[in-house]
Each structure stands twice: as structure tokens, then as C-alpha cells.
Records
---
Amino acid sequence: MSPAVLVRPRPVHRGADLLAAYLPGSFYYTSAHGSLLADGVHACVEADGGDRARAAAAALAAAVRAGHDDPVVVGAIGFRQDGPASLVVPAVVRRACAPAGDGPTAPAAVPAWTVVPRPEPARYADAVRRALELIDGAELDKVVLGRCLDLLSGSPVAVPALLARLVRADPAAHAFAVDVSAPGDPAPRTLVGASPELLVSRRGTEVVANPLAGSAPRVADEARDRGRRAALLASAKDRAEHAHVAAEVARVLGRFCRELHVPAEPTVIGTPTMWHLSTRITGRIADPATSALALAEALHPTPAVCGVPVDRARDAIADLEPLDRGYFTGLVGWTDRHGDGEWVVTIRCAEVCDAAVRLFAGAGIVAGSDPDAELAETGAKFRTLLRALGARER
Ligand SMILES: C=C(O[C@H]1C=CC=C(C(=O)O)[C@@H]1O)C(=O)O
């Protein structure tokens, strides 16, 4: 007689089905490694002001004791340590090994959007000038300054259709949708985006981070587009901007890894809208108790979203950016009870609440940055979301 089946095979879903099943309130995440759709709340993970990795590990252990057979912590953490966070152990998690893949996507309806830049573009360029003064005065080496676009439509935004367009537009991106509703919100609030930047992943002992910094907007003409890519790779200013991030990510991961491979030179990766300098760093974790979320918390905020030195950059951001970033430039992802997981930098994203959408884009400022070019770069970064929303590009 054949032995009893002790392990029930976990249902494996199709990536496209998980995307189709997403509804606001769920957590959705997809990358080249697969997709995850999570529903309901088994437990909230609370950790005021940090050590969320420890709180997540405790919540996962409690979920196992309560009989949850495959608990995962999913969610988003804001830019500031004392900022917002939305982390839960969901009641139900469905996974697909493959990403969402191709599939039909209804073209974006073309609603009449009212668009308000915050701050005004000229004020953003002024803030970049002031950051350059701080850099000239040797107070800072790098700071990332962001700006927002507030869009208002005549009717509520269909978040599932927006998410599907983001996933289909760039299957290589890490696309996500997270419920970030807060008390006082007039309607459910969703953080939705397609980040090109892997903060860190851990699978077994393998650790991967893929910092990006140093960017050029893409153009339709192929020859000019190739020229921009080559110019980015040759740009001393962009290489310096990138080196800060790669060095800091390598330094932090070096504390946790027994092997670390850091390529000496950046490469260029492309999204449909941008070229970016990229360094793929790989390592082997020294202590298996260090979870993907613990690594992510140690790395955040990297100089891809904050700056160097980090405390002065934080102060400069607080002084020079008129809006609180909230979840923008934080992290989104998941971690499981084995410590495996994947966390991305919360960029190329928007918060959607009923008919209102806030987009965020930032750019790294270093010696040699040009305020108008940084304004144009942030404008180009908005295109990921503007295209998916069917709004006019700016
Ligand atoms: C802060 C953003 O991008 C960061 C990540 C990649 C490249 C960046 C840059 O070239 O400035 C930024 O550091 C954003 O897209 O909003």
C-alpha cells in the first residue's frame, strides 16, 4: 500500500488569474518571480517607530501556533521611521509561480483630469537650487527631492484596471497594490505602482538587492533613445549619484552576508519610460534568522530615496519638500515565516482615493545636477502612472 500523503500540495494559481481576482482592499504583488494575492486580516503587525521585522516574526510565529498553515506578512512602510505603516498577516494568501503574463487589458478610459503640481514646477527647481547650495557648502553630498501631481477625475478611479495596465505595461517591474486606508479617509485608499527598484529579496540563503540611481528619460526615436542610454552610462554626474547608493547598499548588506558580490561597474536597465544605472548585488546570508524584512529595514532609506549623509539629507528633505511623503519612497513587499521575502522601493506609484490620485516622483541631486533637468526627470518618471491612468503626459 502506498504511504499516506502527509503534505497536501499547495494550490498553484495562474498569475493572470490572481491579477484578475484583485479587488481594492486586497494586497497584490507581482515580479519576475511570481505573484501573490492576499485577502482578509488574520492579524495586524504593529511596531511603532521601528523593529517591524521583530514584530512581523512574532506575528508569523503566533499565526503558526493558531493553525495558520502558510502565514505571510504583507504591506507597506512609509518613508519616515515615524511615518505610516500598513502590515498584516492576511487570512488567505494565493500565490502563482509565474508573473501575471500577457492578457487583455482595457485601454485607459480618457477621463478629463484636473492636474495640480505640488509644488509648482518653478518652486521644485528652486528647491533643487537650494539643495545645490547645501552641496556646494559641503553640508551634503546627495539629496533626493520629490514632487507630486494631484489628479482629480469626475468619477471614482477603477483601481483593478489601473493595476492591470501597470502590470501589462512593464512585466519586468514589481507591481503592487496595498490598502493604506487611514481614519478620516472619505473612501478606501490604495497605494498602487510599478517599481523598477528591488530594495532586497531573500530566498533561502540567497540575498539580492538592485539599487538604481542616475536616470535619463526615454524617447520614441530609437537612435536618440540609444544615444540617451549611452550618455547615461558615460555621465560622471550620474555615475557619482549611483555610486552613493551602490556603496551604501553593499556596506549594509556586508554586515549581514558571509559572501557578497558587488559588480565594479553599473549597467543600464530600461523601463518603458526611463533608463537607469543599475547594480545587482548578490550575497549569502550569514544568519538564517535575518529575514527579508530585517534586511529591508536595515537598508532603508538608501541614498536612492534620501541622501548622503543620511541625517542631513532627511533634514534637507523636511525643509525643501512642501509635502509629507507618507508611503512614497518607503517600501512594499512581503516576508514569510522562513524569513524569505521581497521588498521594493515605493516609487513609480500613486495613492488613489475615490476620484483623487496623488502621484510622486523624485530625483537625486548631486554636484553638477541641473535644476531644469531634474524637473524634466521627475516629469518623465510620472509617465508610468499618467499612461496607466490615461492622462496627458507632461
Ligand atoms: C525617487 C525616485 O527614483 C529613485 C530611484 C531611481 C533613480 C533615481 C534617480 O535617478 O534620481 C532616484 O534615486 C523616483 O522614481 O521617484
Note: The longest strand covers residues 142-152.
---
Amino acid sequence: MTDAYDPAREGAKMSFAEDMSYGDYLSLDPILGAQNCQSDAHDEMLFIIQHQTSELWMRLALHELSTARDLLAAGQLSAVFKMLTRVSRIFDQLNNAWDVLRTMTPSEYTAFRDDLGASSGFQSHQYRLIEFILGNRNTAMLKVHEHRPELHHMLQQELGTPSLYHVVLRRLASQLGLSFPDDTFRMDQPHAASDLVMDAWAQIYQAPHDNWQFYELAEKLVDLEDYFRRWRFNHVTTVERIIGFKEGTGGTSGVKYLRRMLEVELFPELWNVRGRL
Ligand code: HEM
Ligand SMILES: N[C@@H](CC(=O)c1ccccc1NC=O)C(=O)O
């Protein structure tokens, strides 16, 4: 008689022939069967899993951002704060994940880089959707998705919807009894900094207690952009460390292109207003 622990004796359910198990619920078979390495290189598994997990976190970020936008339009700010905080935490998670990928050296990456063909993160439709929902909109980015009509359609639909920041600005204007001109809300290009919008944020920051929820909302957005910028910075630094200034597999200039993307400002007035306070 062994005294090894027997979970069945304590009532743990041990048979799942008829019931939904852990793996069933989480669809682990398709997920854990989807690491389709193109080479025999040891590090390709790391590369694939790093991207797949990033895409899963991006999926959650999109889920939170689109609900946050709906709730914002309905004026439910407290729930929006929770969701925006969660998205910042997701970016923090993605930022920390670079430490795992950074263990791959140029020699190890070179062993399978050619097998990636022309594929590149540049073609991540979820990353593009996050950018679009936050307001960094560029119609030129749609073309690489033409071969996948359902993804192309999703991106196009997003471009036809006001961005999260647009919805924030609509509420801000109504809170302060202002009206921003129509060209503040261009849906098919990046949001351009506006003095009127900066004046409105200045009002909020100069007297936080008068409109505390908008003050809190502004800081949640700054937080989110701060984490997003760190993601871009970690990406470009990792890329330089691994491929230097080589052209990207996606056909861009690589690090040069990614450095240019560091200049993107999602909520420019929220950064500009700081110099006015
Ligand atoms: C060895 C690691 C990596 C290298 C060498 C690398 C390299 C590059 C390069 C050169 C580009 C520019 C586009 C091109 O011409 O290919 C790019 C874009 C991109 N990469 Fe990576 N990358 C790496 C890891 C990652 C990871 C882990 C993610 C996470 C999902 C990612 C997501 C993206 C995205 C979203 C873009 C588009 C950025 C934009 O358009 O602003 N990359 N990457
Ligand atoms: N653009 C990268 C390749 C790359 O990183 C990549 C390739 C396929 C799927 C995701 C990727 N990640 C980010 O771009 C390169 O030029 O080496």
C-alpha cells in the first residue's frame, strides 16, 4: 500500500470522456499544434511562440479597447478607466516579453531568417487595428491585407469608425460646452495636433477638481501611450541588436523605418499641454 497522494480519494474529477476538460475549454490542441517551424533551427520555436503570445495579448487589447470606446460613448467612464488600465498592463507584459526574445543572438536568428520569406510583423493585422483604434491611421497600410478579404474588411471598417481618441474629444467638448471643428475628426489619417484641443486639455489640467473624471481619463491615455512607446522602443532596439541595419523581410528599410515610427504621437495634445502648465 503506497501513501502517494490520490486526488480521486478527495473527490477530484478524474474522468473527462463525457465532460469539458481544461484542454477542451482552452482549445489547447489547435493552439499547441500551431508551432509550424519552417526550419530545423532550435531558436525558431522561441521566435514563433514570442509572436503567437504577442498576438494573443493583442487580441485581448483589442477586446478591451473596442469595449472601452463603446462605454465611453455611453458615458460610463469608471468602467473605461479599468479597461484602459488593463491595456497598459498588457503592453507592460509585452514589453517585459522582449527579455526572452533578446536571448537570441544574430547567429541564431540568421539560421532561420531566410525561411521567413517576405513575412513580417509589418503584416500583423491586429497591430494595425490597435494603431487604427487609437487614432494612428494610414490607409496605405491596408494593401498588404488585400489577399485576406475578411481582414481587409475589418481594417477598413475600423477606418470608418471614430477612433477612441475621437470619442474622448467628443465627450470633452460636450463636458466643457465647446465644439471642435469637423477636421478634428478626420477618420482616415493620423490625428493632427490642434490648438483648440490643447486649450481644452489645459482647462482640465489647470483645475483638475472641476472635471476630475476627465483629468483621470487624460492620465490613463498618457499612460497607455507611454507603454506603447516603450513597446516600439524595445522592438527597434531588439531589431538593431539582432539584424543591425539590414532591410526588413517585409521590404521596409528596417531599423530606419522603425525609428521613424518612434515619432508617432497618438494623443499629441496631451503631450503638448504639459509644456503649458
Ligand atoms: C528577431 C526579432 C524581430 C526582428 C528582427 C524584427 C524586425 C522587424 C522589422 C525589420 C520590421 C520592419 C518591417 C519589415 O520590413 O520587415 C518589423 C516590423 C514589425 N514587427 Fe518586428 N521584429 C522582430 C520581432 C517582433 C515581435 C516579437 C513582434 C511582436 C508581435 C514584432 C512585431 C512587429 C510589428 C507589429 C511590426 C510593424 C511595425 C510598424 O509598422 O510600425 N516584431 N519588425
Ligand atoms: N522583419 C523581420 C522578420 C520578422 O521579425 C518577422 C517575420 C515573420 C513574422 C514575424 C516577424 N516579426 C516581426 O517583424 C526581419 O526582417 O528579420
Note: The two ends are 76 Å apart (CA to CA).
---
Amino acid sequence: MQEKEYRILVINPGSTSTKIGVFDNEKDILEKTIRHDADKINSFENIIDQYEFRKEMILETLDEEGINISKLSAVCGRGGLLRPIEGGTYAVNEAMLEDLRIGFSGQHASNLGGIIAFEIASGLNIPSFIVDPVVVDELEPLARISGFSLIERKSIFHALNQKAVARRVAKQIGKRYEELNLIVTHMGGGITVGVHKNGKVIDVNNGLTGDGPFSPERAGTVPAGDLIDLCFSGEYYRDEIMKKLVGQGGLVGYLGTNDAVQVEKMIADGDQKAKHIYDAMAYQIAKEIGSASAVLDGKVDAIILTGGLAYGKDFVAEISRKINWIADVIIHPGENELQALAEGALRVLQGEEEVKMYPGSVKDKTIV
Ligand SMILES: Nc1ncnc2c1ncn2[C@@H]1O[C@H](COP(=O)(O)OP(=O)(O)O)[C@@H](O)[C@H]1O
Ligand SMILES: CCCC(=O)OP(=O)(O)O
């Protein structure tokens, strides 16, 4: 019997771009990256205010590409800053929408993934899902200790791509993901370095407002005492400081752009400051990978470098030079997020996996 074909629209809002794809079962018939200028993105007060802008761009792009949305079977979005949950495919429900709208665990473009998926799907009377959201939490107890008893470390990272790329690499080297110790470094608008031990991400930097290397648009770890002094200097409102850390931090703060391609052009044109800052970003990433290798007692099967920045040959070479004594370095430029979203939705549509229901209710703040 012929397998039923599902046409799935997938939506991946990132901090510097919105990526969309249309899949007939596993086969991609469209993949498109819409890049957003840092000034445009920073002109919105809150993430939720970008809803119309991003949704319209998606619908316009689908129209231009000749995709008739009435033929879709499901819509799947990248999951955002919900409550910490296990990995898997979740149906978008009311509790999830409320948490995405308020940004239960913080503000990030991925909060729009589930919301836009739901809006498009409900107009067509088809289901909407999210897969492996950025709050997937598999941290070991030791990794949760921050050193400051009032604050616990959190797992906020590129869970979808880290897991998808780790699985792909495991296949390439002929092993199961669950058998390997991997360090997966996603380098996009945010940068996260995940310690994957036997199929679980047991430690990772919180790539949003937490810690780790600075990135195209985020500050990463900053000296805590100096930050507190700045917060109480009377010069800034809370939201201004937050924006300086996320959105206007990292490359944007130093060089005025979140676009690494532009930074590479500045360097090629002899801009010494751009070179210094770009080198510092590579240095901080290498340092984070070094500390991740200590979490695995040095027993690392491979280090994977992925995300948009992994297209930068000199950048990747500089990181690799510093860390290739630990283990083989595998470069996987870009990401597998669109494919991973489509496959997650498909597993549920084809009945291979049970859809998960998002727990929780915003009103009483309890998990049900
Ligand atoms: N060919 C390339 N060389 C170097 N950097 C690149 C290249 N293509 C994209 N990038 C950079 O990768 C970053 C975006 O990565 P991406 O994974 O797409 O981010 P996000 O999904 O967070 O928006 C940007 O700084 C972009 O300029
Ligand atoms: C919130 C962690 C995921 C992240 O940083 O994604 P982007 O790089 O797409 O902003």
C-alpha cells in the first residue's frame, strides 16, 4: 500500500532570521532563509510585537514561491521559552500559547514559532506542533549548581539542531547517538555548547541571558559585580540593560552588526578592531569547549561545530586549532532544524510516536 503523503509547513524564527520549509513527508520542496537586519529587530519593544511582521513575511514568501497553503496537512514551529520539558513533539495547546505569549522562561524569537504555526494551522483547520523546544532540560544535578544559592543554572539552548546534528553525525560514524560522548557547539545568533553524554545533554551554557561565549547578538558571561554596579548606576532602565545583553550584545555591541559575513568583510578590508573582536569570540568558544571536555572526563568521541557561523572557514579553523587535541572536530555548517521539525511532526502524523501534551497553566502557575 502506498504511504500517505503529508505536506508540512515548518517555521523556525531565530534571532537574526526566519527560516521556513515545506516538506512532502521527509522530502523538502522549499527551504528559505529570510534574514533580518539587527536595527529592524531591535526596533520592536517585545518579541511578541514581531508577530505580524514575521507572519506576513512567511505568508508573502510562500505566495511568491507558489505554495498554496490550503494544501497543507500540518504546521510545525520551533518551540520557545516554555517551562522546562523533556524532548519530543508537542501539540500546540492553549496553555502553551499563553506561556509563549508571556515568554514564561524569557524572551526569544522562537516563542513565535508555536504561535505563528497555530495561527496558520487553525485558519486551515489542521494540527500544529512544536518539536524539541529551546527549554529541553536534561541537565545533571551537578550542572544545576551556579555557586550562588539564590540562582539555579538553566538549560536554554539550540536543542532542536544540537540533537538533530548529533544524530546525523552518529549515523555517519556508524554508531547510535546513545552510545556516544559528543560536544555540540551551535553558533548562530546565540551560541551554545552542549555536553551530549549517551543521548542526553547533561550540561550546556544558557545561551540566552545566562552564560557562555559571547555571540553575534549576545553578551554571554559578563563579570557579575561590574554588571550589578551598572544596573544600580541610575543610568539605565532594566529593559535597556537586558537589551544590551541580548540583542545588542556581542558583535552588535562592539561592531554594530549581527552579520558575521559583514564582519569578515570588515576584517578583509583591514579593520583591526573587527579582527580583535572576532578572534575573541573564537577564543571564548574554544574555552567553553575545553571546559565541556572536562565534564566528560576527557572521553570525547567528537566535537561538532554547527550553525551559520560554521560557514566561516577562517573562524572555524581558528576554533579547531585550539581544540582539536581533545577529539576530532566535525564541521556541520548551517543547521538541520527545518528537516528535524518536519520529521518530528511526521512521526506523530504517521502514528510512529505519540504526541505529547504541554503541561501547565499560567493562571495558577502549577504544572498539571
Ligand atoms: N557564509 C557564512 N560565513 C560566515 N558567517 C555566516 C555565513 N552565513 C551565515 N553566517 C552567519 O551566521 C549567523 C546566523 O546563524 P544562524 O544559525 O542562521 O542564526 P539564527 O538561526 O540564530 O538566526 C549570522 O551572524 C550570519 O552572518
Ligand atoms: C535561546 C537559545 C537558542 C538561540 O539562541 O537561538 P538563535 O541562535 O536562533 O537565536
Note: The pocket of adenosine-5'-diphosphate (ligand 1) is lined by residues 14-17, 188-189, 216, 258-261, 264, 307-309, 311-312, 335 (CB under 6 Å).
